[in-house]
Amino acid sequence: MQIIPAILPKDFDEIIDKLNVLEYLVPRVQIDLCDGEFGLLKTWLPEGGEELPADYEYEFDIMVNDWRPYVMRAVDMGASRVVAHVDNFSEADATELIEMLEHTGTALGVCVSNNVPIDVHSNFVKFFQERYDNVFIQVMGIRDIGAQGQPFDESVLSRIETLHEECDGVEIQVDGSMNNKTAELVHEVGAVAVIAGSYVFGSSDIAGAIEEIETI
Fold it and tell me: pTM to 2 decimals?
């Protein structure tokens, strides 16, 4: 199973420090951008012009109310994947996001939260699938978006099963409260990757923690 370490940076230097700690043990990392409103924590937010090391694949999880500038700043920084939180999206918002990304080659992730009926999210996934070539799903394993250290929300298991039925063939990853035990649970119902922050960077043996999930 794939593990994608999550970085919730207080500043840009923290991103570089954590990439150095990882020592290329994984090909991809997720960088969370939170405004303190949509995403509970407030993280560093790019202003434009920042440069990331070229040897990782970057996925940006954009948890901000004013998402438009940060989508493009993430792309400018080399994002190969962007996760959009569509809880408050209109169809016009979704169309605008597609238009922003359609010539960039960036994969588009649709985040499935706990606070909106699952059919709202599955309909958005289908909307994107019909109009965009590279779509995936990120399901939240916790109740509150944008905060590490929360307990695992077992309702994610049924959401994954429903999404597999409703959105056949779409890759599903899980973000929040992921460790070697919860990763196994979501893998059993069809998730192919997990996003893990505290589990990775809080471990005294980062290589071992990563390997334990990769062998699930």
Answer: 0.96
